[in-house]
Amino acid sequence: MAVSFTEVTKRFADGTTALDGLNLKFDLGEFVVLLGPSGSGKTTACRILAGLEHPSEGRIEIDGRDITNLPPRMRGIGMVFQNYALYSHKSVYENIAYPLRIRKTSPAELDRRVKDVAELLQIGSYLHRRPSQLSGGQAQRVAVARALVWEPTICLMDEPLSNLDALLRLHMRTELNRLHKRLNKTFVFVTHDQEEAMTLASRIAILKDGKLVQFDDPRTIYRRPANRFVAEFMGRPAMNTMDGMVENGVFRSGQVTCRVQCPDGPVTLGIRPEQIVLGGDEGFAMKLDVKETVEPDTLLIFTNDKGTLTVRTQRDCDDLAPGQSVNIHFPPDSLHYFDAKTGERLR
Ligand code: ATP
Q1: Which of 55, 305, 326, 337 has the smallest count of CB within 10 Å of its CB?
Q2: Burial of 24 (0-12, 13-18, 19+ CB in 10 A)
Q3: How far is CA 171 from CA 120, 141, 326, in A?
Q4: Cβ–Cβ contacts within 10 Å for residue 112, how many?
Q5: Do 204 and 265 fall within a single domain?
């Protein structure tokens, strides 16, 4: 029971390659988040799965069945778009009922399903309203209800939360999580917000330049990024990465120096800001440049001639002031090693 993209390439008429041999396979019932920088091919992958775009090359399968040439209506996929795309002249009830009307569902069954899904999404008391009489969050729920009412195998959502304000976004995130657990349907969700991806996904597919660069659960993506790109992309503030040289088991890059477990030669070392230890006798000294407190954390930014180093700490930093020299230590277990040329993870 799986959905698979095999060597899917999409070239648009103007020559843009939006997907470049994408291989991605996930199980039905998963909450898959497509994440990547702007232009990485997330929306294109979604539209190809829904049948709204045709791949230039490659194959899409659901449950072992090749659906590459199947019309959208026959794929069993419900969609929620960023702008919700509700019919302004129809009531909420009729908006939700629409997919059932085009499938010629009997009136009694249609009424039952619309009311059930409206109940599930807590919009039962707005069924008589028009979309213009709804708040952003309510309209978003109507769009989700319309995508789910006909019980599709897969629900595709392309940045559905991006038009909501920050608080509502957090709330809807929790609701979507709850909805997914309750319905046990496959959700495919597009976002460029990594926090959204981390909280919603059973697995995150990270795309770059139309290719899959890593597909793992959020914890693995954060703790064992497959390459330097993922390491720097996931996590705020970003992982510190330093290009340097290893000689006799000691890494050096500007003032940064630490014992490492990798062969001598060039390497890119990575460490998350929250894993750097301040004070003590081990390590090296660096000059504090900027101190920013965002309770309960303090961000400390150090600079040297090779670049900056960001530390995130919950320790009391009242004793630290910009200009001061601070001792810094990298615990060996917190280090990530990347190939200096290719950026691929070494161990
Ligand atoms: P965003 O986060 O900005 O929405 P995305 O990762 O969803 O980006 P896509 O919308 O899939 O990226 O676009 C991938 C690439 O394909 C981009 O370079 C985009 O400009 C290009 N593209 C998308 N649609 C078309 C089109 N119809 N014609 C030509 N190029 C297109």
Answers
A1: 305
A2: buried
A3: 15, 12, 40
A4: 12
A5: no
Among 205, 232, 259, identify where a domain stops. Answer: 232
How close is the Cα of 91 to the center of ligand 1, in Å? Answer: 33
Residues 6+ apart with CB under 8 A from 20: 9, 41, 209, 210, 211
Categorize the per-residue pLDDT at 146 as very low, low, confident or very high, splitting at 50, 70 and 90.
Answer: very high
Q: Tell me which residue of 312, 276, 279 sits closest to 294, measured CA to CA.
A: 312
What is d(CA 211, CA 227) in angstroms, rounded to the nearest whole number?
14
| 162 and 20 within one domain | yes
Predicted model pTM: 0.90
Full domain range(s) for residue 265: 241-338
Q: How far is the CA of 43 from the centre of ligand 1 (A)?
A: 7
Alpha helices, H only, the chain: 42-50, 92-102, 107-120, 136-148, 166-183, 194-200, 218-223, 228-233
Is the beta carbon of 36 within 6 A of some atom in ligand 1?
Answer: yes
Residues 87 and 176 in one domain: yes
Answer yes or no: is the C-beta of 225 below 6 A from any ligand 1 atom: no
Residues 6+ apart with CB under 8 A from 63: 1, 2, 3, 28, 153
Residue keyed to tokens 């419900």? 78
Domain membership of residue 346 (yes or no) is no
CA distance readout (Å), 9 to 20, 23, 75, 99: 5, 10, 20, 30
Residue whose tokens read 């509502």:
168
- Give the span between the Cα atoms of 114 and 268, in whole angstroms: 55
In the reported structure, the alpha carbon of residue 210 is separated from the centroid of ligand 1 by a whole-number distance in angstroms of 9
Question: Which tens digits make up the pLDDT trace of 106-134?
Answer: 999 999 999 988 988 888 999 999 999 99
Residues 102 and 213 in one domain: yes
- d(CA 188, CA 226) in angstroms, rounded, equals 22
| Confidence at residue 154, expressed as pLDDT on a 0 to 100 scale | 93
> Which of 232, 265, 290 represents a domain boundary (last residue)?
232
Same domain, 55 and 134: yes
Q: Please state the domain count of the chain.
A: 2
